[in-house]
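Aim 2 progress update. The chain analyzed this quarter is reproduced below.
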Amino acid sequence: MKIPLIVLLSVLVMALAISLTTVYRMDGRVSHMRSMMGECSDQAQLILNQRDTLALINAAFSAREDSLPYLRHTADSLQVRLDEVELVNNYLGYYLIIDTGQNRFHLRRGGLLVRSGYCGTGKGWTENDSGMVWNFSTPRGIRYVVKKGENPYWYKPDWYWLEQDLRPPRPGQDVLIPDSLSWEEQIVYYNDSLTSSERVWVRAVPGALGNFKLDLGGGILLHYGVGRGRNVSHGCIRLGNSDLAAIYRALPVGAPVLIY
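Predicted structure tokens:
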């Protein structure tokens, strides 16, 4: 009886020793895994912190980039105010202020506001499907009315077709409106006698600019147009018919126009 009992106890002791050894080893592995998990967690947190830092830096740069046009517009506005102070002291006639940020005009005389309203100004950089790029911004600074005219034609420049990925018409390929017709009859002929595809190829368009135009030089005009209150033009300043007529009557050739 003693021998089997001793054998049984020996087996139990060995099994217990093996179990304790296994538990010890498993505990070591668990501790090692916990340590590795802790390191991974620290690395993950570090990566998250770096990502958040990069996100904050990107947001800061984005905010800075977005603020640049505002800062530029503010600086231009202050410069116009200084120019206006000097202008009021030396010029007694009507003058015009164009705000390209708010797309508003202010007709003034001697510093007093005479008329105000919405206008449309340049839409900035534009690209067609072929990759051609234009800057259709309204130029800022002081300009002057160099000439005025009634019943103006809009002579389409080549970019009108290029912007639509079309080839400009060669001499003799454009559609002509009979010059024997009166101004009003030419407008009716353009709108009612020509198809939409034919109107595309008319280079000298009657009525598109309204009844008046004021030329500021460099291809920049004050004329009638849609899209007032927005940056939609190819650089010109678009006005409503009644506003255009009032400004045309008020501003003589040589009158200053302050644009910012």
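The chain has two domains: 1-68, 69-259. The two ends are 112 Å apart (CA to CA). These observations will guide the mutagenesis experiments scheduled for the next reporting period.
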